[in-house]
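testing teh design pipeline on a random one, pls ignore if ur not involved
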């Protein structure tokens, strides 16, 4: 099962209540009563709905990971690193991070003793990311927490819609939305404010 969650199709917009500045919430109300606090143009806007759902899920997951001492980004990098001997660049592509963010993340993981950069067995000039035993234990603990949060989120949907949602998102990510579009000005994430 995928760890992706957070889509609402325009066809089921009647089951979503959205308040300005908050996340969409599943309701049993028909579409005309669920739109009172939200401009109708946003209920069928896939980009906006995914962004709202992503933000809410990301903050919930980050909070759930705090006691483990790992971020969702660190967890994703470690989990991907456990799938094989990957360079930093390969991991960045797998997880969807820019080079700078990947370097910062790996520095944090190394400092915490969860990962290390080692010479590649296939090419001594290259370095691959190896997950330590402590890192593997951290991934296992974070996987459990992640699945609990995901199950709770998907349980808020009626009947089999949670599985349908995951299936639909997996299909989109594997096909139509597998690669970012080409345009200038869209960032994967906003830059952090500069501290003086």
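output:
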């Amino acid at each position: 099962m995928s760890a992706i969650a957070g889509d609402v199709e325009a066809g089921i917009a009647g089951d979503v209540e959205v308040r300005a500045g908050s996340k969409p919430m599943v309701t049993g109300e028909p579409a005309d009563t669920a739109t009172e606090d939200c401009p109708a143009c946003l209920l069928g806007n896939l980009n906006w709905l995914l962004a709202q759902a992503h933000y809410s899920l990301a903050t919930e997951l980050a909070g759930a990971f705090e006691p483990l001492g790992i971020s969702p980004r660190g967890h994703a990098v470690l989990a991907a690193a456990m799938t094989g001997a990957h360079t930093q660049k390969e991991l960045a592509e797998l997880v969807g991070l820019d080079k700078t963010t990947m370097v910062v993340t790996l520095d944090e993981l190394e400092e915490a003793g969860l990962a290390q950069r080692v010479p590649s067995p296939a090419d001594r000039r290259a370095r691959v990311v190896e997950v330590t035993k402590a890192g593997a234990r951290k991934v296992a603990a974070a996987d459990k927490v992640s699945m609990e949060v995901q199950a709770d989120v998907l349980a808020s949907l009626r009947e089999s819609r949670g599985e349908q949602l995951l299936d639909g998102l997996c299909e989109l990510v594997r096909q139509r939305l597998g690669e970012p579009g080409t345009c200038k000005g869209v960032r994967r994430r906003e830059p952090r404010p500069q501290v003086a």
